[in-house]
Amino acid sequence: KAGVTQTPRYLIKTRGQQVTLSCSPISGHRSVSWYQQTPGQGLQFLFEYFSETQRNKGNFPGRFSGRQFSNSRSEMNVSTLELGDSALYLCASTKQGLAQETQYFGPGTRLLVL
Amino acid sequence: AQSVTQPDIHITVSEGASLELRCNYSYGATPYLFWYVQSPGQGLQLLLKYFSGDTLVQGIKGFEAEFKRSQSSFNLRKPSVHWSDAAEYFCAVGAEAGGTSYGKLTFGQGTILTVHP
Q: I need a labelling partner for A23 at 20 to 30 A (CA). Which of A8, A105, B71, B91 fits?
């Protein structure tokens, strides 16, 4: 069974631009969660999508948004990029997004904002 | 709100030595607890998890962890470390008191493990 895939793996943008990251979950998984990982703040939860609906959201500004498609693939968008948005963005999938389920992580997208 | 603390930012051990990585959590009920490992530039891989029952859980790669409710701890152990165990280790909680916690893990700050030959 194929794992979670994320594209692109690496991205360089400049301040003020916007970026879209993509995540394809494991087949049969309908929940996708997104995390931001930085050296200073560690791993922080961004949001979770299930059946095309956002069910949970972390403490990030509105510049961070996402969506999920009917095939469970998810995208994350960051508008008006800031230097502090440089990070590794990870997505994870589970069947239902329940707390007791194991989250399976993708390799991440490394975003550098110049 | 729930929180996870990993007191040790960096641990260095010799190959073949035993290992214990500490994790303390703050949560009102019995949480769902996880240990993940991350190699440089990679995503996270699950080592083991605890939901209920036996407080000593076995995981992959020879790791085990013990849940101690009285100490709010979930420490990770390995009797003999291999050079390939060098990585960053994260403890995480998968539940939140009083509300829904769909798809949310709360992570500790991580412990970087260095293994000397």
A: B91
